[in-house]
Q: What sequence folds into this?
């Protein structure tokens, strides 16, 4: 019998920051003024929206399990998508911070720390390389095929992160994205 996973609730976060950004460009003059950097911003916002949406879908599925394993399998798939989207969004954030735009790296946000980047990367790599391990028959019978919650830890292939920490990083990415969606050079 399956257990029910408990994921922190992020339903208060919108998943429309990319749309808000486009609306802010049209009606408020938002944007960096540099076409390449604007593409980085749009890509970052789209992926943060996707990561938050996938996390919330995972939370909803996990909360509906009630002893049924199918919602947990679906939740695991949504967590795979969430982590992959987080990794991609962090890649775009890094490119933004290195760009010529005046977008500073927020030092107070742990999601932009080397610890968060490494943790998300290791989990993303475990997800992306699982197919190869399955095909090459490198899994032991006790190995999980997808991310799963073990108490308060999200685990896969020996990699793990606190689900509370992961939810906190998503909230930080979202909040940074909300601020970025109305970015105008020289206006903070």
A:
């Amino acid at each position: 019998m399956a257990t029910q996973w408990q994921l922190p609730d992020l339903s208060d976060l919108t998943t429309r920051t990319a749309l808000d950004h486009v609306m802010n460009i049209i009606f408020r003059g938002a944007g960096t003024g540099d076409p390449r950097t604007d593409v980085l911003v749009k890509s970052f916002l789209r992926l943060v929206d996707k990561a938050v949406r996938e996390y919330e879908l995972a939370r909803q599925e996990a909360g509906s399990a009630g002893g049924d394993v199918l919602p947990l399998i679906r939740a695991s798939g949504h967590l795979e998508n969430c982590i992959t989207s987080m990794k991609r969004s962090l890649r775009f954030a890094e490119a933004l911070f290195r760009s010529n735009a005046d977008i500073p790296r927020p030092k107070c946000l742990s999601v932009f720390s080397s610890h968060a980047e490494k943790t998300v990367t290791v989990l993303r790599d475990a997800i992306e390389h699982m197919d190869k391990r399955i095909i090459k028959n490198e899994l032991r019978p006790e190995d999980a095929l997808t991310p799963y919650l073990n108490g308060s830890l999200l685990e896969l292939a020996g990699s793990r992160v606190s689900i509370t920490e992961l939810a906190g990083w998503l909230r930080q990415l979202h909040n940074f994205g909300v601020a970025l969606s109305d970015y105008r050079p020289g206006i903070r």
